[in-house]
């Protein structure tokens, strides 16, 4: 049982390049989330998917797109990377959305945009 | 918009003492609050959840309080150990239950 896995672990991009961050969970969870974590800013929600087939914007969605490919996988795409998107990206999942649900996080992807 | 503040300074304590971490929030009235632990280079890990009507919650050496009047949660680690050294995050859950808002975290170092 791997939990939440993310690929790649680390990536360097040049400004304007595109890339897709991959996330998969094997806990049969309905809800999945993408966060970014920056020093002094804490974790901020980019997008979430309450269930397969649905996606919604979080606090900081600009410059990103997401795809809930199936129940297991939730990808985050940067169409034209900018230095401001240098960050650590975490994917998380929970059984469902709701007050009592706890989130399970992946190990993170460290992205540097030059 | 919601604002969540945690101890801005890193916290250093001696092994065996009780560590107390603070989470203050404004412009919000959450029904639930969660605490997570994050080790360097890793994702956060859930520790405890407390409801607004549960003033206090305990789990082994951990204790969380939730004061909705003060808009504050306190997180205590008793008999602290060097292995407790990590960053601790508090998280508020939106009224719809769909979104989590995390504080910036407090870095705790337990000195042997």
Description of the molecule:
The complex is a heterodimer of chains A (114) and B (112). Chain A is built from no helices and 11 strands. With 114 residues, chain A is an all-beta fold. In chain A, strands 2, 4, 5, 6, 9, 10 and 11 form a 7-stranded mixed beta sheet that branches. In chain A, strands 1-3-8-7 form a 4-stranded antiparallel beta sheet, with no helix packed on it. In chain A, strand 4 and strand 5 (42-49) form a beta hairpin. Chain A is globular and about 40 Å long. The model of chain A has no long low-confidence stretch (mean pLDDT 93). Chain B is mainly beta. Chain B contains no helices and 11 strands. In chain B, strands 2, 4, 5, 9, 10 and 11 form a 6-stranded mixed beta sheet that branches. A 5-stranded antiparallel beta sheet of chain B has the order 1-3-8-7-6, with no helix packed on it. At the A-B interface, strand 5 and strand 10 of A face strand 5 and strand 10 of B.
């Amino acid at each position: 049982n791997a939990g939440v896995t993310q690929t790649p672990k680390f990536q360097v991009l040049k400004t304007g390049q595109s890339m897709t961050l991959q996330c998969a969970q094997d806990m049969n969870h309905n809800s999945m989330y993408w966060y970014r974590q920056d020093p002094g800013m804490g974790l901020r929600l980019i997008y979430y998917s309450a269930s397969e087939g649905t996606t919604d914007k979080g606090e900081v969605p600009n410059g990103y797109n997401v795809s809930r490919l199936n129940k297991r996988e939730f990808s985050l795409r940067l169409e034209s990377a900018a230095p401001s998107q240098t960050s650590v990206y975490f994917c998380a999942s929970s059984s469902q959305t709701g007050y009592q649900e706890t989130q399970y996080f992946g190990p993170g992807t460290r992205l540097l945009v030059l | 918009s919601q604002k969540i503040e945690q101890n801005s300074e890193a916290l250093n304590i001696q092994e065996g003492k009780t560590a107390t971490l603070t989470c203050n929030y404004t412009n919000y009235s959450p029904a639930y609050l969660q605490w997570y632990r994050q080790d360097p280079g890793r994702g956060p890990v859930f520790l405890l959840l407390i409801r607004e009507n549960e003033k206090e919650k305990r789990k082994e050496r951990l204790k969380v309080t939730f004061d909705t009047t003060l808009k504050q949660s306190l997180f205590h680690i008793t008999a602290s150990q060097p292995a407790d050294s990590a960053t601790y995050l508090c998280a508020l859950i939106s009224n719809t239950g769909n979104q989590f808002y995390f504080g910036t975290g407090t870095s705790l170092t337990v000195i042997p």
